Structures are given as structure tokens and as C-alpha cells.
Amino acid sequence: MINETNQTERAALVGIVLKGAKPWVTDDFLDELSLLADTAGVRVVDRFVQNRQKPDPGTFIGRGKVKEIAARNGHFDLVIFDDDLSPVQARLLEDKIGKRVIDRSGLILDIFARRARSKEARTQVELAQLQYLLPRLTGQWRHLERQAGGIGLRGPGETQLETDRRLVRKRISKLSSDLKRIEKQRSTQRKRRQNTFKVAIVGYTNAGKSTLLNNLTDSKAFVEDRLFATLDATVRTLKGPQAETILLIDTVGFIRKLPHHLVASFRSTLEETVVADLLLHVVDASHPHHSDQLAQVRETLEEMGLREHPRILVFNKIDQVESAAEIRQLKVEYGDAVFISALRGIKITELTNRIKNTCEDWKKQIKARPNTSQFSW
Questions:
Q1: Strand locations in the chain, DSSP E?
Q2: What is the DSSP pairing of strand 311-316 with strand 246-250?
Q3: Which of 88, 326, 333, 358 is most buried by its number of CB atoms within 10 A?
Q4: For the ranges 220-229, 255-264, 347-356, 358-367, which has the lowest average pLDDT?
């Protein structure tokens, strides 16, 4: 965990602009990293950006920039890098800067550990944390590992390192088994719902998915204006007459640079998206870079094999868009999308009708193919 006390830690953020990249992209990434830090209970007090041809193999950002950060280390308690660092880089940076160093993956894992509520989510997060920690154990004990050798030369450093590795691997094995058991239970639950029309709400984190779920189903799922407010898949029934056969599933939000080991750990949760008959792709229309977020989610869905999956594009938070011209332009670009405000209930009926109409088409195909439980377009 980043901070186990009630005292708010201060952080400096570090990003890198590589040759050919646009500086505003790094600035946008750091803005998002700042929101992640806020979600983790950390106050951002400084940020540093380095321009390089390529990352430095030792310090990632180069020794000159490291000295610049170290000169200001009295202003912050830790340094958060927007990119993943190798164990060697992280250790060297901590030595040079004199403060704790974590990377984007470490920060996201900390947030997930704080937000995990169900047994499945806690198991998934712990597994991802240990998989992240395992290669870093070597770096932690490398100064003692040199004592290793022949008989009589095995030092305490090697013993401690090997003990730590064995304990971590044993725990990873147990957690993996636990997840397989949970996945079987989920599979059984899905079989019970195979004749029910399922709608998965997907989108970038903080796009308003949980708020939309609450509006469509008259439920009270947890909502907070922060990244990764919820991690568990929440299933509710669509409200209204003749809607009892429609299930809505709220899923964990997507984000850029999401650690691959975290995606792997959350496979069973993400499978709720794969088995859905319809996707509601929710986009925050008020976000200055909503098009980039939209593209990121589409890319992630394609990686999950859902490129051709039936979906409805939903632009949310239209009440927060300053210019009506922006909405008109979005309607020109995405003519088949639905434009709503989940918080204020604007155009929710239009979205509900779209969902119900799609469900009716699905039922007709189910009747035409009695042995088929999945919607085929």
C-alpha cells in the first residue's frame, strides 16, 4: 500500500516524451496519472517531463533529469513514473533520488487493492500484486546474493531470497487455484442466464457506467467521481414492463497502459463482457480527449475478440459539454450513437428503447434457432 497512515503523501510525477511523440500526449497521460494518484489518496505537488530519443536503460529518464528531481526531493515523499520500470531501474532511481519510487502499474495495483470488495476481486488483485512483486524480489536482495557459492558459502541473502521466492510462488499457485474455482462458479451462474438477454456496460474508467446502471435499473450501485470506483461486475435487471428478461452488467473500467498481468488476473470479470449479447460503450462526452478514450476502449475490445460484437455507442454527460456545437459535431461523426446524461436522466428513454428493440430481435433469432443461446448478427 502507498500509505497506511492517515497522513496524505506528496508525490512528484514523471513522464517521458520520446522522439516523434507529441508533448501534449505525455501531458494528458500525466493528468490521468494525477487522477490515479488522487484516487490512491496521494497529493501531487510536482511533475517532471523528460525528452529523449529512447528510454535510458539504467535510469529510464537519464542522469541529468534524475539529478534535477533529486534536488527537489524535500518537496515530496515519493516519485510516480507514468511508465513501467524494471526492478533495476526502480532501485537505482530510489538510490539517486533518495525517495520511494513506484511506476504506473504499482499505483494502479495499489488502487485496486483499496477498491476490491468481493472475494473474487481481492483474490484477483492479490494475484496481480504478487506477480508484479516476484521479479522485484531479486533486485531487493541482489546485494546479498553475491555470497552464494559452493558448500559452506551459502549466505543469508540467498537463503532469504529463495525463501521469499518460494513463499510468493506458493501463494500465487494457491490464488490461481482459488480463481479457477471462482471461475467455475461464475460459469455455472452464466449457464443459468444463457436464455436471458445480457447487456454489458463498458467504457473508459469514470465515464459514468455505474451511474447509468443505477438509472436504467433503479439500483444503488456504488458511484464516485474517481477512477476505478468499482472493480466487481454488478448485475441488475432492466426496469420497466416486459424488461424482466434483460440483465445489465456493469464492468471494470478500461484505462490506457493497464498492466497486462492485471488484465490477465481479471479475466473472469472481463468474460462478463465477452458473453454479453449487447455492449453499451459509454463515452464521457465532456472529457477533452474523449476520442482517444473511445479509441482505447475499442482497441481493448478488439484484443478481447469483440470487434464485431453488437454494441450501442452512448455519449454520456452531455449536460457537462460547454458547447452545443460540440454535440452537433459528435452527432455528425457518430450518427447511430445515443446522447444522454445518466445523472440527470436525459434521453434515457431513447436508450432504453434501443436496448429493448435489440432484445426483441435477439428473441426472434433465438426462436428461429432453438439450440443457439448466443446472439448472431
A1: 9-18, 42-52, 78-81, 100-103, 197-203, 234-237, 246-250, 278-284, 311-316, 338-339
A2: unpaired
A3: 358
A4: 220-229
For residue 79, what is its C-alpha cell? Answer: 516519485
CA–CA separation, 354 vs 358, rounded Å? 6
What are the residue boundaries of the structural domains of the chain, listed by start? 9-111, 116-180, 195-368
CA 208 to chain centre: 14
Domain spanning 195-368: which CATH class is it, in words?
alpha beta
Fold of 9-111: Rossmann fold (3.40.50)
- Residue indicated by cell numbers 471461475: 183
Residue range 95-141, pLDDT digits in tens: 999 999 999 989 988 888 887 777 887 888 888 888 888 887 764 54
How far apart CA 8 and CA 41 sit, in angstroms, is 7
Spatial separation of the C-alpha atoms in residues 57 and 63, rounded to whole Å: 11
In whole angstroms, how far apart are CA 259 and each of 3, 319, 328? Answer: 21, 33, 36
Cell digits of residue 167: 513463499
Q: Provide the sign of the torsion angle of the four alpha carbons 49, 51, 53, 58, taken in this order.
A: negative
Mean pLDDT of 139-146: 44
Rg (CA), the chain: 24
Q: Is residue 239 predicted with pLDDT exceeding 50?
A: yes
